[in-house]
Design a protein that fits this description.
- With 113 residues, this protein is an all-alpha fold.
- The chain has a domain of 75 residues.
- The protein has two helices and no strands.
- Helix 1 runs antiparallel to helix 2.
- 5% of the residues are buried.
- The model has no long low-confidence stretch (mean pLDDT 74).
Length: 113
C-alpha cells in the first residue's frame, strides 16, 4: 500500500469527489451567510436613518454607528467577491454562454455594491 505525503492512506477518487462537493457546499453556505449579514447591516442602517429623519429639525444627531457599519459592509462585500471567485475556481470552467453569474446559480451571484 502506498502512503500519502501526510502519512495517511491515499484517497480514492470517489472520496475526492465527495470531499470536493463538501468543500463547494460549505463555501456556498459561507457566501450565503456573508450575504445575509450584509442584508442585516443594510436593514440596520436604513432603520437608523429613518429614526434620524423623525428627529426634530433643531436637534443634531451625531451618528457614530453608521461609519462602522459602512466599513463592515465594505469588508463583507470584498469577502463575498473573493469567496465567490474561490467557488467559481472550484467549480471549474464556466459555460460559454453564462457570463453574468460566472457559472454560479443566480442565488450565488455577487451582491452589487
Amino acid at each position: 500500500m502506498q502512503k500519502t505525503k501526510g502519512g495517511g492512506m491515499p484517497m480514492q477518487s470517489g472520496g475526492r469527489d465527495e470531499t470536493h462537493r463538501a468543500i463547494v457546499a460549505d463555501l456556498a453556505s459561507v457566501i450565503d451567510h456573508v450575504r445575509r449579514t450584509v442584508s442585516l447591516i443594510e436593514q440596520a442602517v436604513a432603520s437608523e436613518s429613518g429614526a434620524e429623519d423623525a428627529v426634530a429639525d433643531n436637534v443634531i444627531v451625531l451618528d457614530d454607528v453608521t461609519p462602522g457599519y459602512a466599513r463592515v459592509d465594505t469588508a463583507l462585500r470584498e469577502c463575498d467577491a473573493r469567496l465567490s471567485l474561490a467557488l467559481r475556481l472550484l467549480q471549474g470552467p464556466m459555460p460559454s454562454g453564462d457570463t453574468a453569474g460566472g457559472g454560479l446559480p443566480a442565488a450565488l451571484w455577487q451582491i452589487s455594491a
